[in-house]
Queue: 2 jobs
Job 1
Amino acid sequence: MSPEPPVTGLLDRYAEQAGLDAIEQLRQLARLLTGLKVVHVNSTRTGGGVAEILDAMVPLMQELGLDTSWEVIEGNEDFFTCTKSFHNALQGKSLDIPPRLLRAYEDVNAMNAERLRPVLEEADVVFVHDPQPAPLLSHCPGRRGKWIWRCHIDLSHPYRPVWKYVRRFLPGYDASVFSLDAFAQPMPHPVYLIPPSIDPLSEKNLPLDPETVRKVLEEFGIDPHRPMVLQVSRFDRFKDPLGVIQAYRLAKDFVPGLQLVLAGGSAVDDPEGEMVVEDVRNAARDDPDIHVLSSGHYSDRIINALQTGADIVLQKSLREGFGLTVTEAMWKGKPVIGGNTGGIRLQLVNHRTGFLVDTPEGAAMRIRYFLTERHRMAQIGQNARELVRQNFLLTRHLREYLTIMVALIHGNEDRIELG
Amino acid sequence: MIDFAIKDCALAIMATGRRAQTLRELRDILRDIHPGCIYHHFWGTLLRPQFIDREYNNDFATWCHHSLHDGTAAERLAVIDPADFHDMEELRQELIEVIDERLDETEVMLFARADQQFHFARSVIVVFDTYKRLSDPRELVDVLPRLSVGSIFYHLIDARRREPIAVDDFRAWLMGLGAEYAGLCDSLAEIDPYFESLFTLRDRLTNVLTSYFYPEPSETERGPAAEGGA
């Protein structure tokens, strides 16, 4: 017998943000899957976009009547060093990984499989997020459900030797999901495309009152009366924090009151972050208007206040799977200046929702433009918020997961008509 | 009276791994690509999450304009109305015809940037019944604003490729109810579904139906009191 969905009112709260129609559609779709056992597996409970999405997605799936759980694999330092190297190499960095680390990767997965096997083999649908837990499938010979490899990173130009190693764990999956077609690699199974989303009910995205925002800014020594540009991201070379500092310096010649905030926590699975923070601190050392917020974990509410208090949000990445911070800023009605790369290129439309730039010089020019043409900022912010509401909230993301599950269970025909 | 069965649908979009960097490559792939890809790049784009407003009614035209910078090809591809074609094969032939014509008159081969290639995708459409039924067209006025965009897509867009009538489901239903709704059908036919988001289309449909069933009283019907006199 199917379990009764827990009644928490969560869906009603999403309806206030995404619209009743979107929620009613989720209920209808979920009815086709009621009682299914669904398991998500990733490598960290906190930090990074995947954990954020699962944190919101899992309770929603539960409330829709799917028997959903979230498992996290436990790793050691070698394992996370290895998977961080995967992350960099799969996004294009030439990086050979020592056999010792690859052994740690495989051993950690084998150990976790011992613990998780009963849950995974019994599940109707298993979503395995990113390369970290990918080998779990090979340790579950008694699996009965559909296994989906969900790749959140940009695999368009992977460093081939590392991709060749990782992909050997993937053929057994029933499907893969990539964020964009340009990020996908050929697979021996169906490849679906689902752009990521943001959670409008998370602490990071709920509206804040101006007083709260002001207090947070002052807490970090940021003057709320002077213009502020912000980049929120992990301290990672692909996010180009040094390029952001260069852009700020070029713009500050014309806007002397300008302040820059670089804020980002580090995830448990990111040991390289500390080195990047050190470089950023060195570059920012002589300027009190550059605020590097890197020590410790900043609450989502603080990040929200920084985004809400910013005049302009930057995401000047050199490589980006999909800029969640871009979508978050757009949801808060902020103009965004983003690196002309990956998913950001689809998120930002010049003059409509922000600007795409290729260089620090380009970013500086657009900062100056926005701070001069302030009326455009409000207009662009309004466009951006509505686009996100219609297309990039968690409810749309969930709808597509449900659709894929239905498609896989019903044979993946071009057209599936159900009662 | 026949009831109107409200259905809903959702798309799962699939990558094919095939991509084009020039108009010639686009044509070559179109020759043998799965017909579901052609459907997806004409209609699926409406139900796909995206950040841009629709400028052209299909992805081929959009790509020619934005990535190949071939405005002529974009404009010619954009005037193709997929509803004019009996099936995907006929539509495929028309696309190839238009591209061939453009290739014949072009002396220089234009290339898209490597990171702006045309990626062929297709969609799996999952259609499901909402078990809501309408027996009177007036009910549409209340129900339409609350329909999901998936329902709007299914009844307004997807219906156009369903034989034998090949018009949207709203008109198909109204036509079946007799001549009394002919005027309403004409008004609904004026909605061009290819340029606006499904959210906007839902608003437009609602407005047409509201105006038809609950017209604003004319100046004479309102009388002098309504004009502010007393």
Job 2
Amino acid sequence: MTETTYTASRATVAGPQRPPGKARRTGRGARHPEGRTPRGRSWRHSPLQRMTPWLFLAAPLALLITFTYVPVASMVSYSFTDWDGVSPDRNATGVDNYVQIFTRPELFRVFFVSGYYLAASVLQIAVALYFATVLSFDLRFRNFFKGILFFPYLINGVAIGFVFLYFFQDGGTLDSVLARLGVGTDHAWLGDPTSANVSLAGVSVWRFTGLNFVLFLGAIQSIPGELYEAAELDGAGKWQQFRHIIAPSIRPVLSLSIILAISGSLSVFEIPYIMTGGATGTSTFVIQTVKLAFQFNKTGLASAAAVVLLAIILLITWIQRRLVPDDKVDLV
Amino acid sequence: MGKTRTLTGVLLAVTTLTVAGCSGGGAAGGAAAAPADPGAVSGEIKVLTHRTDLVQNGTMKRYAEEFNKTHPKVKVSFEGITDYEGEVKIRMNTKAYGDVLMIPAVVAKNDYPKFFAPLGPKEELSRLYRFSDKTEVAGKVYGIAQFGTANGFVHNKALWKRAGVTQWPRTPAEFTAALEKVKDRTGAVPYYTNFKDGWPLVQWTSNVGSVTCDAKATDKLSGPVSPWKEGGELRTVDTLLHDIVKRGLSEKDPTTTNWETSKGLLAKGDVGAMMLGSWAITQMQGAAKDAGGSPDDIGFLPFPAQKDGKFCATLVSDYQQAVSIHSGNKPAARAWIDWFTGKSGYSDKEGAVPTLKAAPMPATLKDFVDNDVTFVERSEAQTGPVNAIDNAAELGLNKPDYRQKLIDIARGAQKGSLQDYFADLDKRWDEAAKTAGS
């Protein structure tokens, strides 16, 4: 790279990103480069220094490429073959796997199960929003409650699966707690499809409320305190404060949560896989894909299914962004 | 200067490795013949095994020490792998999958010659060993079974006696009647499905062959033969399971069962019976001892079906040991397999059916031997095509899913009737057989 292009590119790069004050200073520096920063010039031109950002980037980029992009590329390439996952041979079958996926309606039936999780995530967002709002005001034991709400998210999903297996067992935690409360029940919680899916979705709510809660809390706490003060002076109650100050200012985070909820509901895996293995009508699209790949050795078909799921999620996200554009929020 | 030298060193090491890799590759393709003189065979071999418990408690090391008494120049090391199937499957895409390994179920039979060294011609090995046809491709055998198992119901004899059942049930109807008695007279859970863990449901498939005393019963499934048609063995087997559940003779909430707990339940007499392989008997006896009971209470029942007044029990092979085609020490690896299968006493200790034809049946199967149960060694001639159909149909004869659905139907958790379900299974099987066969 020559000196002129370097200066030019630096100027363009620096221009729009820096706040105005800093940009002015850089501009001055560019006008008198030799006089102002002779030493700076020399280090900027040393090859090692120019390499520095790339050296810092090397590790994350290498990890990202090795563990994300290369596997995704291989997965896409497998999806056009009939590979069984082990054999050294594989035959290219073109779009045959995709044709199979779209001509077998039973493969899509499992998306009905996602409905349970989608309904659950509405509840989850509501609960998280409620607690985030309440705990953003000054409250006794505020940090303690924050900790309690966030804690489940920190537990490994597999561990949660096992814990709740005991919880829902016949005569397990749930049954004995209900018995204490005088509601003796003989219900097998994971026994029939509706009950099992509701139970599993409930576990999912328990696990992920913490994440939504923290996102909302962060957004709410970034609202300047003067706004509340001003609102109170104007006689606004807590509900009005929520309606006119909090709600609009967390809209971007809310829409992010909704995207996460939808893509999460479509690709539920850990909790049902650990707890029921997809039996009794709790199979999800990802469980089905895993079974295709590792039980029936249809790695090619399973890769195609994974690609289709990715496409569906991207599509839904795109539609959502079109319907609800992410406006700039300006409260002041 | 220092840097340069390190670099040279690294390059040299890489080159050496490459050359070594090539020479190893050169050896690939040869057969793993048994060495003539056990004292002369030498080399280091690594054995991949699913028995992590035996590696950790030093049992495998003791076997290796015993082996070294006759084969002093062979150094054996073990690698226990918890998720054996999953991990070895991926490692088999490379060349580093040990010298001796258990053949993962996922490898297609026709691919054996690409991964494993042939151990000898079929005639020679089948004279000595059981189950050798399971790994035979084009006249050559690629694996030797560790041991085999017979299938049947592990049951608590003491409990059954209390219920007044002392005779072995001879038909499925007699069997469910016996379970009814256990339920009514003792209050125990007569049968435990292990629905949640799933794999114990797979054991039911091994009864194919026991019902009609036919070693080739599984082979006959290759093709559009509607396995669940009237009179089909799978129909008999699955109908029994269905009836047990439908009549409320199994545990109340199958979705939260637990295998480890179930051992104690059976040992204590809280559970009457479970369908398992004979390998489970020693584990149940251990559980009985832990629970303060007597190991003698644990009994083993054949599948309730008779042919000419005799019970039959299908013998199926456990994991087969093979030599990697990339192994640099094939004679040593072969010597280990032969010794471990025939001379180590491993199968006897596990209470399993020995692979060696000359060896006697284990003490755990004493009931079967005394009562003249016919052992039928399952023919594996058509295992490849049968598995191909099974996978193409996404049905899973050796996976729990379809029986989990069967149980769900039986207990009313999912809609449908048994007849419709069998018809659907038949349809899927036959359709897949038509496409997979071509």
